[in-house]
Prior knowledge:
This protein is an all-alpha fold and 171 residues long. It contains 10 helices and no strands. The protein starts with a helix and ends in a 21-residue tail after the last helix. The relative contact order is 0.07.
Amino acid sequence: MLREQYESGASVAELVTTSGLSYGTVLNRLRDAGTIMRTSWQTRRMRDGQARRNLAARLRRLYEQEGATLTELAAAGSVTRRAARRLLIEDGGRPRTTQQTLRIRSAAHTAARKQLAASLRARYEAGATVPELARDCNYSVATVYRLLRQAHTRMRPQHRHGPARAPGKRS
């Protein structure tokens, strides 16, 4: 992991920051992995070249196609948020507002939730019980009931558990 980040253009100092390891530990791990070390001027030159363009294109793809945030881009590229934003703009991307990102993520979450509700409905209508569905999906019974209601499922009558009532007088 460290070697891949280093070979894609990250400096040792950036690896120290992102990994939380000491400078010496990062150097030792890179050397143990057989990494060919660069000088600082080689790192700067590499950043101005193809590696920088490749990183910028990768970050833009993550940002636009998967709805990643700037913080997630920074982690994926082993750079700061500011550097991730700069790379995104260099590649022709346009930063979103927080609200736009939330809307994108909410839409994706809603679609997945509807798909889950539809699959639960199909299984319920095929004869599965709500407790079985809850156990299989690792959700609570209440959540499964809510998802079934959202899928407009016609519910079966509830069963009365326990001893039957004796026919008798009502008071």
